[in-house]
């Protein structure tokens, strides 16, 4: 539930960011791209195999790694497990008219960069109620990282991509258990008056 909700939240936020970019007086984008949750090669296949989609622009939202956060010494199996979710967002520009795919991909990535820079906190909500707040952390991708990730994409050519970490994701989505605290030991001190201190 938590991981799927996170993916849907990212998809929804990107849709809102792209809609805002389209509605500006001088829009940088010409049309709304499709936002697909999944690896880039599946998105590329969807774009290439559908003749009607060959002119469409796509954003691929690919969660490629889930990591564990540090464990606190006072947690139990009843507490949420906190995770770090690592995501690759790739732009796949369509081939329409005189617009080059590379130009569109730069515009798409630019919108994503600006949005997460201005909105570094991601809220997860269930039925309109916020249940978690995650920090959006840009993750630089080295050439080695890029090679490793794209080597698994069925020979799909590299597309301009961004890396992000979403932390900390509670699994399951529930509040931390309340503890009554450590047992308190009451110590009663017997005091002796100064007048009686000299008695045997």
Structure characteristics:
6 strands, 27% strand, 200 residues, 4 helices, globular, alpha+beta
Short précis:
Helices cover 28% and strands 27% of the residues. The protein contains four helices and six strands. It has a six-stranded mixed sheet with strand order 1-2-3-6-5-4.
Kindly describe this structure.
The structure is a single chain. The chain is of the alpha+beta class and 200 residues long. The chain has a single domain, classed as STM4215-like. The chain is built from four helices and six strands. The protein has a six-stranded mixed β-sheet with strand order 1-2-3-6-5-4. α1 (2-22) crosses α3 (101-118). It is globular, with a radius of gyration of 26 Å. Residues 176-180 have low confidence and may be disordered.
Radius of gyration: 26 Å
Q: What is the SS-derived class?
A: alpha+beta
β-strand number: 6
Major sheet attributes: 6 strands, mixed
Topology summary:
Elements: H1 2-22, E1 34-37, H2 40-49, E2 58-68, E3 81-92, H3 101-118, E4 121-126, E5 129-138, H4 143-150, E6 161-171
Parallel strand pairs: 1-2
Antiparallel strand pairs: 2-3, 3-6, 4-5, 5-6
């Amino acid at each position: 539930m938590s991981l799927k909700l996170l993916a849907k939240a990212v998809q929804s936020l990107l849709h809102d960011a792209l809609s805002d970019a389209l509605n500006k007086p001088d829009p940088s984008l010409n049309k709304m791209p499709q936002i697909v949750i999944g690896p880039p090669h599946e998105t590329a296949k969807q774009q290439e195999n559908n003749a009607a989609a060959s002119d469409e622009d796509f954003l691929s939202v690919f969660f490629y790694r889930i990591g564990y956060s540090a464990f606190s010494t006072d947690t139990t199996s009843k507490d949420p497990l906190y995770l770090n979710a690592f995501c690759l967002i790739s732009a796949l520009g369509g081939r329409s008219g005189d617009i080059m795919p590379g130009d569109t991909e730069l515009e798409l990535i630019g919108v994503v960069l600006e949005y997460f820079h201005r909105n570094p906190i991601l809220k997860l909500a269930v039925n309109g109620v916020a249940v978690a707040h995650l920090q959006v952390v840009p993750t630089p991708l080295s050439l080695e990282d890029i090679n490793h990730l794209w080597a698994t994409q069925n020979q799909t050519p590299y597309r301009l991509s961004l890396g992000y970490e979403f932390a900390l994701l509670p699994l399951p989505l529930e509040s931390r258990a309340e503890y009554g605290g450590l047992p308190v030991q009451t110590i009663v001190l017997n005091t002796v008056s100064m007048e009686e201190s000299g008695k045997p």
